[in-house]
Structure of TrkA family potassium uptake protein:
Amino acid sequence: MADKKKQFAVIGLGRFGGSVCKELYRMGHQVLAIDIREQKVTEFAQHSTHSVIADSTDEKALQSLGIRNFEYVIVAIGDNIQSSILTTLVLKEMEVENVWVKAQNAYHHKVLEKIGADRIIHPEHDMGIRIAQHLTSEKIVDYIELSDEYSIVELLATNKVHNRSIIDLDVRARFGCTILAVKHGEEINVSPLPDDMIYVNDVLIVIGHKRDLKRFEEEGM
Ligand code: ATP
Ligand code: ATP
Ligand code: CA
């Protein structure tokens, strides 16, 4: 594999942090797994490069783990908002470059933003939006919200667009959306050309204003 392996540390091995840790490790990355509970650390020994018991609010403990050398640190402490905030603060003071934090609510989010968290994640909220999108459309395969206005959707090509070229469908002019890629079985055609064909059951990855994407999904597909 060409891309360089990154170094990650995951603090808090609950359901969210645990999944992040396992998946990174499965992908072949270096992952340091940290939790205050011994039972969690034992459980994750086989799903991480190293797993250690530590209280992440303790600056000295983080220092002795060499946490500042990690490119990414994920703070996935759930219910204890105070510990999450303090951990994030310590990590940013230690100048860890990328600190991604799971937020519990709007207040937590606001504080994390102020103290310099590089990315704030709301798994339940984001997953709720995705599930709602899946439930209400047969055509939507996946959904990524970019902002309040823009998103990326994966749409399943229907018979309506079968055997037609992108230029023929005229998606950009008619709907103001851009097709970023087309998945045909296992193949992915990235930045497709106007002459490229679309077949039923292809997956179109489309970016645009939510209003335009909805129109394309309802009228164009
Ligand atoms: P999730 O919502 O992701 O499922 P959870 O609700 O199962 O998480 P929480 O108790 O909210 O679990 O916290 C996640 C993990 O963070 C726990 O395993 C907990 O032991 C750990 N944790 C909490 N405080 C600290 C701390 N100060 N240092 C290290 N780990 C901590
Ligand atoms: P989430 O993990 O999605 O953020 P939560 O942890 O905030 O959810 P939960 O206690 O898990 O909240 O429950 C979610 C919602 O379901 C709450 O609003 C709660 O009032 C409601 N709820 C729980 N039990 C029942 C029940 N038996 N009947 C109807 N509603 C219920
Ligand atoms: Ca939780």
Q: What stands out?
A: The two ends are 37 Å apart (CA to CA).
